[in-house]
Design brief:
The complex is a heterodimer of chains A (about 200) and B (about 220). Chain A has about 200 residues and is an all-alpha fold. Chain A is built from 11 helices and no strands. The termini of chain A are far apart. The chains are: A mainly alpha (about 200), B alpha+beta (about 220). At the A-B interface, helix 1, helix 2, helix 3, helix 4 and helix 5 of A face helix 1, helix 3, helix 4, helix 5 and strand 7 of B.
Chain lengths: ~200, ~220
């Protein structure tokens, strides 16, 4: 493991490592600090990409892209943000950019489990709507818990169990029920839009 | 009071704000922001998921990190390179180098062998901010405790969306008065700002304070 070969431990903060990496000191010292900093987030970046894509090879490609981009941006990183949330933002944006389309109405898991019975009308609806309209509709038509369920499931790509846990839902069907209700409202809003 | 949905980059800073800070309250109540916070926490916690094959992937990622590290060419800190080129000529440079080497050898002979980072007594939030004082004329007086090893300080102020709206010149004292006219004109007259002090040593940031709040009138 790369991190263990360096001289720093967790008592040295990310920001201190970043300060050393960007200082005017010895180049090898700076390189070691930067290596420690990037290595600290190796698992986090990969696991987030894996959760987002659900595919080991795609997650590996994406996480390698993210880690390489960190090196390219180290010298220009604006330290007004914490390094951890900046890296989270870079990882999240890379994953969103790499995904073809955010599906608000269609459940990807349901399609994967039963491809022959995929709800094709929903797929078409999803792809023909402009995202700005959908986001505005989510904000104005859905209850707060429904909005959060859609955000966690469709944008952050969290599993049903994770959404259920984060939202502290107690009923057995958890997030599925809330998401079904949210999607039903979105479909109704779409129908009204088509009529107008 | 204006609060806006948080930018993913600013999440960690928002989570460090006091629980009753309007931006923090917004982050805990807005469905989108709550989702972002949950997503960020999932990133930080990095729980291995079933099927992620993490053990197999780690050596591949480490190899990439090593390759990127080998390719990385650290940029020169601007202030240092500027002063070297401008003020040093070859002969004085040799003399200066000899003085530095001699001083370094003397210093090393008197110090236990330790990493300069490990012996640092400057954890990230090692110095404290006093509550911001807003005067009747709108100016804001900011004070903080001294930071060991710092020779200068810089104050940075962030707007409701955590975009930087002001950066002070480097100052040697542990206080700074912000004139209201120094802030952008397009900010509303009453708003919550966040401030942070950066402790500097020879131009390098050695520590940052925890964020503090300013409510302007």
């Amino acid at each position: 493991m790369v991190a263990s070969s360096n001289r720093w431990d967790r008592s040295v903060s990310d920001e201190e490592l970043l300060g050393i990496a960007r200082s005017a000191g010895d180049a090898e010292h700076r390189r070691a600090a930067a290596t420690e900093l990037v290595s600290r987030y190796r698992d986090a970046v990969y696991l987030w990409c894996f959760r987002y894509t659900g595919d080991v090879e795609r997650a590996l490609d994406l996480s390698q892209d993210v880690l390489t981009s960190v090196w390219q941006k180290l010298d220009t990183f604006e330290s007004r943000a914490k390094f951890s949330s900046w890296l989270y933002s870079v990882t999240r944006n890379r994953c969103i950019d790499a995904s073809r389309h955010v599906r608000y109405l269609l459940d990807e898991d349901a399609v994967a489990a039963a491809p022959d019975r995929a709800p094709l009308p929903d797929r078409a609806l999803d792809e023909e709507q402009d995202e700005a309209w959908l986001l505005e509709t989510i904000r104005t038509e859905l209850a707060p818990d429904e909005q959060q369920a859609i955000w966690l499931r469709c944008i952050e790509r969290m599993g049903y169990d994770e959404v259920t846990r984060i939202m502290r839902l107690e009923n057995a069907s958890g997030a599925r029920t809330v998401l079904q209700r949210a999607r039903k409202k979105l479909r109704a809003a779409l129908e009204r839009r088509k009529v107008q | 009071m204006e609060t806006r949905c948080i930018d993913p980059e600013g999440i960690a800073a928002v989570l460090e704000l006091p629980a009753d800070h309007p931006q923090r309250v917004h982050a805990e109540t807005c469905p989108r922001c709550r989702s972002l916070v949950a997503s960020y926490r999932a990133f930080i916690d990095a729980e291995p998921a079933a099927g992620s094959d993490l053990e197999r992937v780690r050596p591949l990622l480490d190899a990439r990190i090593r390759a990127d590290a080998a390719r990385w060419r650290p940029a020169q800190a601007a202030s240092r390179s500027f002063s070297w080129r401008r003020f040093f000529r070859p002969v004085p440079l040799v003399a200066a180098a000899l003085v530095v080497i001699a001083a370094g050898a003397l210093w090393m002979s008197r110090q236990p062998e330790q990493s300069s980072v490990r012996e640092s007594t400057s954890p990230q939030h090692a110095f404290a901010l006093s509550p911001a004082q807003v005067a009747a004329d709108g100016s804001v007086h900011l004070r903080w405790s001294p930071m060991t090893g710092a020779d200068q300080y810089q104050v940075r102020i962030y707007g409701p969306d955590f975009g930087e709206v002001f950066r002070s010149p480097d100052v040697a004292q542990t206080s700074f008065t912000l004139d209201r006219s120094s802030l952008p004109n397009n900010l509303p007259p009453t708003l919550d700002l966040t401030w942070r002090v950066y402790a500097l040593s020879h131009g390098d940031v050695i520590a940052t304070s925890a964020p503090g709040s300013i409510r302007t009138r």
